[in-house]
Design brief:
It is built from nine helices and eight strands. The chain has a six-stranded parallel sheet with strand order 5-4-3-6-7-8, with helices on both faces. A two-stranded parallel sheet has the order 1-2. By secondary structure, the chain is of the alpha/beta class. It has two domains: 51 residues, no CATH class; 144 residues, Glycogen Phosphorylase B (Rossmann fold), CATH 3.40.50. Helix 2 crosses helix 7 and helix 5 crosses helix 8. The longest helix is centred in the C-terminal third of the chain and has 22 residues. It is globular, with a radius of gyration of 20 Å.
């Protein structure tokens, strides 16, 4: 906490993180959302009948919820990613749950294009995967915590998915069923996702740095010099 006074400025990758910076360090931060390769995703109307997870297989990602939910309901879900929990998850999974391990980007994009929707059962600071899904025109079923609250919108004109408030298989099953009964505007989801594209990030970060440095220099007494440390 003592070092929190050292940085000149803080940049947060979500409102969720900005609140934590304020609560823990007592400092304000500006939110600049991280870059997502949204423009590289293919807008797709295909629906091959499976849901998709793209995630590391580690405990806090809560992949186990999806394994239990889709095994119990006998619905198809495909997991992309690897990690220390992979073996256990594969052993617990029923025949409708499959795991692909890590795949090249092109193959992951193809899976996005064919899925019914994307499942995001963990809590993240921001969460790149939900935005990638929206860029492909696919709704997201996400746990209502962390960065998902800033990207997964439900019950409004621009709906991008469905949220569930309890990290349980029962809650996830109910959310998937709700998602299946909603008609989503795929083009609207993609337009929303493009607002997080990496080109927007580059422009926002460059403008922020320029504005901060310009303001810092103008605040220095004439003739003084100061070395600016890295922006954190």
């Amino acid at each position: 906490l003592r070092t929190a006074a050292n940085p000149h400025w803080f940049v947060a990758n979500s409102e969720n993180v900005r609140r934590r910076i304020r609560d823990i360090y007592g400092r304000e931060a500006e939110v600049i959302y991280p870059p997502v390769q949204a423009a590289a995703m293919e807008l797709s109307e295909r629906d091959d009948g499976y849901f998709l997870m793209v995630t590391a297989m580690v405990p806090y990602k809560r992949v186990v919820l999806a394994v239990e939910a889709f095994t119990r309901t006998n619905r198809q879900i495909v997991g992309v990613g690897d990690g220390p929990e992979s073996g256990r998850l594969r052993r617990e999974a029923g025949p409708t749950v499959s795991f692909k391990g890590w795949l090249p980007d092109a193959e992951v994009r193809a899976l996005y294009a064919g899925c019914s929707g994307v499942v995001f059962p963990g809590a993240e600071d921001f969460g790149i995967v939900p935005v990638e899904a929206m860029a492909a025109g696919k709704p997201v079923v996400a746990f209502a915590q962390g960065g998902a609250l800033e990207t997964v919108v439900e019950g409004r004109e621009l709906a991008t998915g469905v949220l569930f408030t309890e990290q349980t298989a029962d809650a996830l099953i109910a959310a998937v069923e709700r998602c299946r009964n909603i008609r989503f505007d795929r083009e609207a989801m993609r337009r929303f996702a493009l607002s997080f594209d990496r080109e927007r990030y580059k422009d926002a970060m460059a403008a922020y740095v320029e504005r901060r440095l310009r303001g810092h220099k103008s605040a220095q007494p004439y003739g003084t010099k100061e070395v600016i440390g890295p922006i954190r």
